[in-house]
Amino acid sequence: MFARSVASSFLRQAARPAAARPLFSAFRAPVAPLTPFQIRLLSESTRSAIDKAIASAPVVLFMKGTPETPQCGFSRAVIQILGMQGVSPDKFAAFNVLEDPELREGIKEYSDWPTIPQLYVDKQFVGGCDILVSMHQNGDLQKLFEESKVLVEAEEGEKKE
Amino acid sequence: MASITEASLREAITQRLGAIHVQVTDMSGGCGQAFTALIVSPQFQDLKALKRHRLVNTALKDEIAAIHAWTAKCQTPQEWEAEGGGSTPAGGADAVGPSMEGTVEGHVEGTRG
Which SUPFAM superfamilies match (chain B) (predicted)? Predict the structure, then answer.
């Protein structure tokens, strides 16, 4: 029951105003055609927007959909893992790559990782779904979250019951 | 690139990653857009999970870019044997298979890309 209450409060609170929107809304403005050189490289504006996104919380997830309605099974699996681990909603931010094509492609190049979801903890790339599942199972993820002090305190979780 | 199949991926993984055992499963329901793989290779020795996956991602860069979903389990021969890999249980199927995490009964859902 404890894990469940933490998971549900995690999902509820993660639904609060998405920090992603203002940060990436600039991308929807019309832009000048890209030169071949720019096409090959992650643009400076995308890179700095991703820098800001990764620094916006201790735990940052780039996912398809939102924490309350993931649009992909792999993103859903990671959200469930973060809930089971008891990551504090105050320490967490999610960015929906489906809302922004530039973020969707940019994050793959930024992380040098071809798939989404992608998790960052304290600005360090941790991995995608496969890695998070195995780290969840072998205890490494709990260790990482404890060291990073991003978990909900047990007492706090019980009060919410 | 020619269309990607279980067989073409298996061959690429065997050649490029020196895998001693490869199991590739199409979990797209036939459209060839989503694959899960079990890769057993001595090249994973002494590498952490992130490095193992980066090795695979680099070796299969074009293939992974062309499909919608990709998930892999990367084991060394010792890890694979410790989990019962290589032995064939009475049922006939391998004891250890690819990861089905994030799938619904072995199929992926969600949007493309």
Answer: BolA-like (SSF82657)
Query: Among A72, A75, A124, which would you mutate to test the B interface (most chain B Cβ atoms within 10 Å of its Cβ)?
Result: A72
The count of residues in chain A is 161
State whether B50 and A127 contact (CB < 8 Å): yes
- What span, in angstroms and rounded, lies between the C-alpha atoms of B27 and B68? 11
Interaxial angle between packed helices A73-85 and A2-14, expressed in degrees from 0 to 180 and rounded to the nearest 10: 120
Domain count of the fold of chain B: 1
Predicted confidence band of residue B31 (pLDDT cuts 50, 70, 90): confident
What residues contact B91, with CB distance under 8 A and at least 6 apart? Answer: none
B70 interaction partners in chain A (CB closer than 8 Å): 114-115
Least CB-CB distance to B102: which of A98, A113, A129?
A129
What is the structure's pLDDT at B110? 52
Q: Which of A77, A113, A134 sits opposite B49 (nearest CB)?
A: A134
Q: Which CATH architecture has domain A2-22+42-154?
A: 3-Layer(aba) Sandwich (3.40)
Which range marks the domain in which residue B78 is found? 6-82
Nearest to A133 among B101, B108, B110 (CB): B101
Residue pLDDT, tens place only, A14-37: 444 444 444 454 444 445 555 554
Q: What is the pLDDT of residues B52-83, one digit of tens each?
A: 999 999 999 999 999 989 999 999 999 999 98
> Is the pLDDT confidence value at A55 over 80?
yes
> A73, B103: Cβ pair inside 8 Å?
yes
Identify whether B96 is part of a domain. Answer: no
- Specify whether the backbone of A83 is left (phi greater than 0), alpha (psi in -120 to 50) or beta: alpha
What are the chain A neighbours of B111 within 8 Å (beta carbons)?
64, 71-72, 98
Nearest to A81 by CA among A139, A23, A154, A124: A139
